[in-house]
Specification:
It contains 6 helices and no strands. With 165 residues, it is mostly helical. It has helices at residues 45-57, 61-74, 80-98, 101-115, 128-144, 153-156.
Length: 165
C-alpha cells in the first residue's frame, strides 16, 4: 500500500483502509486486524439490536457504534435520537476501554441524556432506563478514576434488552 496516497472507496471517497483492532484503533498496514463493520447497512431494529449486542458482548463497542450509526442514519426521524444515544453510549464505552476516562465519561453522559425521552417506552424491548443507569454509573466510575487505566469493554458491556419482570 502506498502510504503517501489517500485510501479511496469505489466511489472515490476518502476511506482509511488501515486495519483496526477490536476497539477501532488503527493498526499499521499489513498487520491483521478485526474485520470492520460495513457502512450504510440498513437493518431492521431487531437486527440492529441483536448485532450491536453481539459486538458489545465481544468487547467491540466501536463496531457496535457503527451498527447504531447505520440505524440512526437510515431509520425514521422519530427514532434518530434513540439510535444516536445508543451510538454515543457505545463510543463512550470505547473511549473508556481505550483509557480515555474524560472522553468516555462525557460520551456516556451525553448518550444517557439523549435516551431520556425513551426511558418509559422500551422501544424494541430496549431497557432504556437501565441503560441510562448503567451509563451514569460507568461515567461516574471512570470519570472519578481518571488515570486508573482502561476498563474491560466486554466485562462492562451493557445488556440492551434485559428480561421483563
Amino acid at each position: 500500500m502506498d502510504e503517501t496516497r489517500r485510501d479511496r472507496d469505489t466511489e472515490g471517497r476518502a476511506r482509511n483502509a488501515r486495519p483496526r483492532d477490536g476497539l477501532g484503533r488503527p493498526l499499521p498496514y499489513g498487520v491483521p486486524g478485526v474485520e470492520r463493520q460495513p457502512e450504510g447497512v440498513v437493518r431492521t431494529p431487531e437486527e440492529t439490536v441483536r448485532e450491536a449486542q453481539r459486538l458489545l458482548d465481544a468487547g467491540m463497542p466501536f463496531h457496535a457504534h457503527e451498527v447504531f450509526e447505520d440505524a440512526w442514519k437510515s431509520g425514521p426521524v422519530a427514532e434518530r435520537e434513540l439510535w444516536r444515544g445508543l451510538a454515543q453510549l457505545a463510543v463512550g464505552l470505547t473511549h473508556a476501554a481505550r483509557g480515555n476516562a474524560t472522553g468516555g465519561a462525557r460520551l456516556l453522559r451525553r448518550g444517557a441524556a439523549a435516551l431520556a425521552e425513551f426511558a418509559a417506552v422500551r422501544p424494541y424491548g430496549i431497557g432504556v432506563d437501565g441503560l441510562i443507569g448503567w451509563a451514569e454509573e460507568l461515567a461516574g466510575r471512570v470519570g472519578a478514576a481518571s488515570g486508573a487505566g482502561p476498563v474491560d469493554a466486554a466485562a462492562e458491556a451493557p445488556c440492551l434488552r434485559p428480561p421483563v419482570r
